[in-house]
Write a structure and sequence with these properties.
One of its GO terms (cellular component) is plasma membrane. It holds the Pfam family Oxysterol_BP. This is OSBP2 protein. The chain folds into 2 domains: 1-77, no CATH class; 79-110, no CATH class. It is built from 4 helices and 2 strands, in the order αααββα. The two termini are 32 Å apart. The chain has 118 residues and is mostly helical. It has a two-stranded antiparallel sheet with strand order 1-2.
Length: 118
């Protein structure tokens, strides 16, 4: 543990790659993989690319929302695949609750609903 910044064994393995996961799994982030292999400059370039890709998606969604508003249409925006937002009955806080589908998609290896985020 002292050689690994005193992290527990669990903490050290949390980012380990796993086979057959959704293509949106954060362990598949290409910048993270480059960083972990010590390729810092490439990781930084990749991180910048990913961030710009995220900004472009956000700008597109914002433009779609404005367009829908101007046309008097409803705009749903982004909807998470595996979770939904609900108000916790006890605390009154907004929480994310698993709505199903991930494990079934994993069993079938059908990731067709997943967006291309990397």
């Amino acid at each position: 543990a002292e050689n690994m910044y005193f992290f527990s064994e669990l903490a050290l393995t949390l980012n380990e790659p796993e086979e057959r996961v959704a293509p949106t799994d954060s362990r598949l982030r290409p910048d993270q993989r480059l960083m972990e292999s010590g390729r810092w400059d490439e990781a930084n370039v990749e991180k910048q690319r990913l961030e710009e890709k995220q900004r472009a998606v956000r700008r597109r969604r914002e433009a779609e929302a404005v367009e829908a508003l101007e046309e008097g249409k409803d705009y749903e925006g982004y909807t998470p695949l595996w979770f939904e937002r609900k108000v916790d009955a006890v605390t009154g806080e907004l929480i994310c609750v698993y709505k199903g589908g991930y494990w079934e998609a994993k069993d079938r290896q059908d990731w067709s609903l997943c967006p291309d985020i990397f």
